[in-house]
Each structure stands twice: as structure tokens, then as C-alpha cells.
Request: fold
Amino acid sequence: MSALKNKTALVTGASRGIGRAAARALAAAGARIIVHYGQAAVEAESLVAEIRTDGGQADAVAADLAAPDGAHTLAARVRELVGRLDVVVANAGISKAATIEDTTVADFDRLFAVNVRAPFFLVQQLLPLLGDGASVIFVSSVLARAVAGNLPAYAATKGAIDTMVKHFAAALGGRGIRVNAVAPGVIETDMSHFAHTDEGRKYTLGMQAIQRIGQPDDVADAVTFLASDAARWVTGDTLRVDGGTKL
Reply:
């Protein structure tokens, strides 16, 4: 594939899970990849090596997106590597299962810091690098529109992402910059460890039309579509990638 040949893409939280799969898929489509990670340096460097072995281009950059200046730090490091970005995949995120009663202020603030504040200010800081016609892709969740488990604070961050998508798309449309999100259901990653149990698998499949557990590549292919010219007339939308969850 060469749909993204001569394009440069930043993927946050790319050392594992959906981010890693997205980085691989974008690289396979021809893009140069900037692999962001928080602490998993070994995993990030292994992804860079994997992409390079396959004939692609990749670099790794570190930044703590929970820090107040985390997005600014990441943007500065990206500017040191490239003078133009064509794709931003704001994938990095954290989750915390807790009832309303058990949610602490610290947990709530950290969820919003990583899942909402960081992508907002990352795009802000990267605007001078985003070429006309660039694609920004956020990661939402099925929980932004449906209830499952004890994740009210996490779900609220994803509702914020869905709102952000529309406002950013409207604001940046004049430059031809498209802004969308993917909203996965349960995906077999470290974050969805409960789906690895028999009980969790049964619960998950009970919510879905398609009777299998979603994989990171399922979401990565949707990300690649939104990043490409095949989605040139799609903006301000949240694409459900959930196997028909909570229909």
C-alpha cells in the first residue's frame, strides 16, 4: 500500500495496543511514523526497529502526557524531527474503573489530563506543523454513548472527545484539516484485561452483534482509512469500530 506515501504521522501512546497497531498500519500504508511513548521505551524502540526492518521510516519520542506541559513538550520534540505533519493520531489514554462513590479527585483529574487536556493542547501546539489537508484522529469509546461497567469518569473523558471533534473540525476546516475520532468497543489490549477471562468474554460478546473479541488491527484499519484520501469528505465524525456493541 502507498496511500500515505510521503506523509508523516504522529501516533501517541504507540508502544502498545491500539496505538502500536495504528502505527504499524500507517507505516504499511507508506507514512513516516513518529512513535510517542510515556515510559515504555523498550517497546517503542522495538516498534521503530520493526517498521525500519520492513522498509519504513520511524522515530521514537518520549513525553509524559499527564504533566501540565506534557503536550507542549511532545510538540517541541516533534518539531525537532520534522517540519510538517500530515496525520496526528491522539491515541494515548488511561482508564480507571471506579463507581461514582469511589472515584477520587486525583483519579478524575489524571483521567482528564491524559485523555482530554493532552490531545487538546497537542493539536494546538502542532497547528503550525499541520499541512493543509492534514488529518487529526482522536480515540473515543463506545462508553461515550452507552453504559457498561463502572467507568463514569473515564466515559466522561470520551464524551468530551466526541464534542472536541466537532469543534476542532469546524475550526480547522478552512485549512482543509479533517478531524475525526474512532470509537472502539472492547478491544483485546492490556486496558481491557477483563475480556481475557471467561466471564469477561461472555459479558463482552453479550453486548455485541459480531461474536468475537475486537483486535487492535480492527481499529488500526479504521484509523488508516480516516488518515487517507479515501476519507477526504469525512470530518467532524466519530466512527464506531465496535462490532455492533450496544445496538
Notes: Helices lie at 17-28, 41-53, 70-81, 105-126, 152-172, 198-207, 216-227. The first helix runs from residue 17 to 28.
